[in-house]
Amino acid sequence: MPEPPPAPAETASAFEVAHDHGGQFANYCRGTLRITASTVESAGTEHSFKAARNQVAEAKTNKGFGRFMGKILKGGRNSGEDIRGGAGSFHIRIPQGNFNLISLGKDRSADAAKILSLLAH
């Protein structure tokens, strides 16, 4: 009897993000946030995490968090890209901790809305 074909790989949505290291994104690392039907994970330059989707205790927009955000430089910490205003800033709480993130995409607010929508299902 022939073996069944392998299960198809899960489709993932991926977003470039910055992870805050202590407030207002003055110190951060960059990475990729990947969301599948069963997992959420981030692989970054300094930190990474992976959790089952059912372990996401909270995923919400950060209210007022970004009013005094610093600047992110392409590929580095002290860049010229101004992210003040906090558009696209959100957090994900999983067993490993609370992760404050901000989208680095062209439309941060739309990216954050998409991420939070994916995590709500």
Structure description:
- This protein is mostly beta strands.
- Helix content is 11%, strand content 45%.
- The chain has a seven-stranded antiparallel beta sheet, covered by helices on one side. A two-stranded antiparallel sheet has the order 6-7.
- A hairpin with a 3-residue loop joins strand 3 and strand 4.
- The chain is elongated.
- The model is unreliable at 66-70 and 72-80 (pLDDT under 50).
Could you write a compact summary of the structure shown?
With 121 residues, this protein is mainly β. The chain has one helix at residues 108-120; strands at 13-20, 28-35, 39-44, 48-52, 58-61, 71-73, 76-82, 89-94, 97-103.
| Radius of gyration over C-alpha positions, nearest whole angstrom | 16 Å
For this entry, what is the oligomeric state of its chains? Answer: single chain
What separation lies between the terminal Cα atoms?
A: 38 Å
So what's the CATH class?
Answer: Mainly Beta
Helix content percent band: 10-25%
The name of the CATH architecture is Roll
Structural class designation:
mainly beta
* Total DSSP E strands: 9
Would you tell me the overall average pLDDT?
79
- Share in β-strands: 35-45%
CATH homologous superfamily - what is it? Pleckstrin-homology domain (PH domain)/Phosphotyrosine-binding domain (PTB)
Key features of this structure:
121 residues; seven-stranded antiparallel β-sheet; mainly beta; PH-domain like; 1 helix
Write the layout of secondary structure elements.
Elements: E1 13-20, E2 28-35, E3 39-44, E4 48-52, E5 58-61, E6 71-73, E7 76-82, E8 89-94, E9 97-103, H1 108-120
Antiparallel strand pairs: 1-2, 1-9, 2-3, 3-4, 5-8, 6-7, 8-9
